[in-house]
Design goal:
40% of the residues lie in helices and 23% in strands. The protein has 15 helices and 20 strands. Keywords: Isomerase, Magnesium, Metal-binding, Phosphoprotein.
Length: 456
């Protein structure tokens, strides 16, 4: 059994994420690092301080030193680790429900641990082969506030002043500490919603999906904002509305940045996750670049493998020239810079990015049968669509690229008891046809396997 999913270790408090687990992760990471400094941060969740204290105790017991930077967004933890640490840990469940929490581990470059590093940590935990430091070599812990230094470094990188009017929905998360201050220092006129950190997420659900932030559409249009931006609980994700109140699809935003990077580099390699649109391929290839797809949560592996100039999955963006971690704050700063430099409304800037018909929906599925269901769905979908398939990609479940340019993806969630079904069609009718096929198949298989499970 693996502890790590697509985004660290994540799940419900007490049933999966416990103080004992945090203690053991701390001991394992301290054993892995052996010596040096580990940077530790946490989000606003009610259980985060509890887990932080347990994790820090485990780290100190192995003799490593700990730099606690407190309540921070995940991108800032990654940045601080790159600057000051030999490894880093963020206590967060990102956009999961408030009853969940989690642990993300970063290497000395601020990159989430690669698969092989996660496996080494798991081996230490499962074998309980922890280093025990003698009483006179226990590690030391100190606290440090790095907020201003982080903002200043982003400002230097973005290097732009703006007068744009921006509506920010912080979702009661850690972005409240950085985003409003960053944009005001850039000169933007900023109005905030849900900008008081609260681990109960009272303003809205933490995940910035359209259905959770649809109210921003009327606000941005009626109040005359140039755009609206929403972030999730640990502020590594963003979602955007243009000045007309239109939700900007995640893949359109990825395509915008991918095209600009390909233009700047006169080509180059772009890495995106398995669940992204063909519109990205189209705009990148027009600029002489190439798109590579990787499993969810493995953008950093893709950057390393393909020497990528830009990497992204829905809502998440990595700008390698700034740092090798997902950083929504750099993305926001660069987005404002793009709008100003183009000299026209955001809706006009993205108008020429191709639009396809894409739908994403989850099917709830118990953890114990999730992977069995996906395997059976993969088998049956290949049979049902056999005469239409152009390419089969078997990472993060299975993606079938079809001859007409449409595609179907079925994959297990790496963080929740769900199966993700994603379909993109070249027309609305084609999208609905393929989605009905895939979604109904997965739903039926979940019921079928659930019945078998109860019967046994």
């Amino acid at each position: 059994m693996r502890l790590f999913g697509t985004a660290g270790i994540r799940g419900p408090i007490h049933s999966k994420i416990t103080p004992e687990l945090a203690l053991n992760v701390g001991k394992a990471l301290g054993t892995y690092v052996d010596k040096g400094t580990v940077v530790v941060g946490r989000d606003a969740r009610t259980s985060s301080i509890m887990l932080e204290n347990a994790l820090v105790s485990g780290l100190l017991s192995t003799g490593v030193d700990v730099l606690r930077i407190g309540f921070v967004p995940t991108p800032m933890l990654a940045w601080a680790t790159n600057k000051l640490g030999d490894a880093g840990v963020m206590i967060t469940a990102s956009h999961n429900p408030p009853s969940d929490n989690g642990i993300k581990v970063f290497n000395e470059k601020g990159i989430e641990f690669f698969l092989e590093q996660e496996e080494e940590l798991e081996e230490i935990i499962f074998s309980q082969s922890y280093k025990k430091s003698p009483w006179d070599h226990i590690g030391t812990a100190r606290d440090l506030n790095l907020k201003e230094q982080y903002i200043d470094e982003i400002l230097r990188y973005v290097n732009h002043e703006t007068k744009l009017k921006v509506l920010l929905d912080m979702g009661n998360g850690a972005g409240s500490l950085i985003t409003p201050y960053l944009l005001r220092k850039m000169g933007a006129k900023v109005v905030t919603l849900n900008a008081h950190p609260d681990g109960y997420f009272p303003g809205r659900k933490s995940e910035p999906r359209y259905e959770n932030i649809a109210y921003l559409s009327n606000l941005v249009r009626e109040l005359g904002f140039d755009l609206a931006i929403a972030q999730d609980g640990d502020a590594d994700r963003i979602a955007v509305f243009d000045e007309k109140g239109n939700y900007v699809e995640e893949d359109t935003l990825i395509a915008l940045f991918a095209r600009l990077y390909a233009q700047e580099h006169k080509g180059g390699n772009i890495v995106v996750s398995i669940n992204t649109s063909f519109r990205i391929d189209k705009v990148v290839e027009e600029e002489g670049g190439r798109v590579y797809r990787v499993p969810l949560g493995q953008l950093h592996d893709g950057i390393k493998k393909y020497n990528a100039i830009f990497a992204s999955e829905p809502w998440k963006f990595i700008h390698p020239e700034f740092g090798l971690w997902i950083d929504s704050f750099v993305t926001i700063g660069l987005l404002l810079k793009i709008i100003d430099q183009e000299g026209k409304p955001f809706s006009e800037i993205i108008k020429d990015i191709p639009k396809y018909c894409l739908i994403k929906k989850n099917v709830k599925c118990p953890e114990e049968i999730k992977y069995q269901v996906v395997e059976k769905a993969k088998e049956q979908l290949r049979e049902l669509l056999s005469d239409q398939i152009e390419e089969v990609i078997t990472i993060s479940g299975m993606r079938l690229n079809l001859k007409d340019g449409s595609w179907v993806l079925v994959r297990p969630s790496g963080t929740e008891p769900k199966i993700r079904v994603v379909v993109e069609g070249i027309t609305e009718k084609r999208k609905e046809e393929l989605f009905s096929l895939a979604y109904n198949l997965v739903t039926r298989l979940v019921l079928e396997f659930s019945g078998r499970s109860k019967g046994s």
